[in-house]
Amino acid sequence: MKAQDAIFLPAGQGRNANVIGMTHITKVSPVEDGAAFLAAEIIIPPRCGPPMHRHAADSECFYVLEGQITFGTPDGEIVAKPGEFCFLPAGGAHSFRNDGDQNAKAFVVVSPGVAAHYFFGELDRSLNGKVDVAAVAEIGARNGLSFVTA
């Protein structure tokens, strides 16, 4: 695909990855599509989400589509509902999770997204949906993501 080509995907289409129990459906990638960002729909099952972490280069924007997502920051927690937006800048510590009984869904844009592209892909290929804390930390370290410990 050339960088100037438009990309259209019907609902539910994209490249699927299992990222520590969440489904990531990549709509556009800076690596595969030449975009300046990564855009994905993520589906977060009940009581699922990553612990407090930070990205060296990637900023994340979440637009909640369904359910509620609890975002953790060093200053406290924010509960976002459908139609609400949360910006998580690169270098800042954050977490997110679904505390509800139904799946939560968000549209996420990660910029520049190259590290995220490789991180999500490697998790999907290496772990097959399993949660192996040591492996996730190792894969994260290779891709500019570190977990924050108390």
Polypeptide structure, described:
It is a single chain. This protein has helices spanning 114-127, 133-142, and strands at residues 15-19, 22-28, 38-44, 53-55, 59-66, 69-73, 76-80, 85-88, 95-97, 104-111, 145-147. It has 150 residues and is α+β, with helices and mostly antiparallel strands. The relative contact order is 0.23.
Would you count the extended β strands for me? 11
Distance between the termini: 44 Å
Poorly predicted parts = none
What proportion strand?
35-45%
Instruction: Give me the number of helical elements.
Output: 2
Strand order of the largest sheet: 1-2-3-10-5-8
Gross morphology is globular
Q: Could you spell the SSE succession in H and E letters?
A: EEEEEEEEEEHHE
The average pLDDT is 92
Radius of gyration: 15 Å
The secondary structure category is: alpha+beta
The biggest beta sheet reads: 6 strands, antiparallel
Helix content: 10-25%
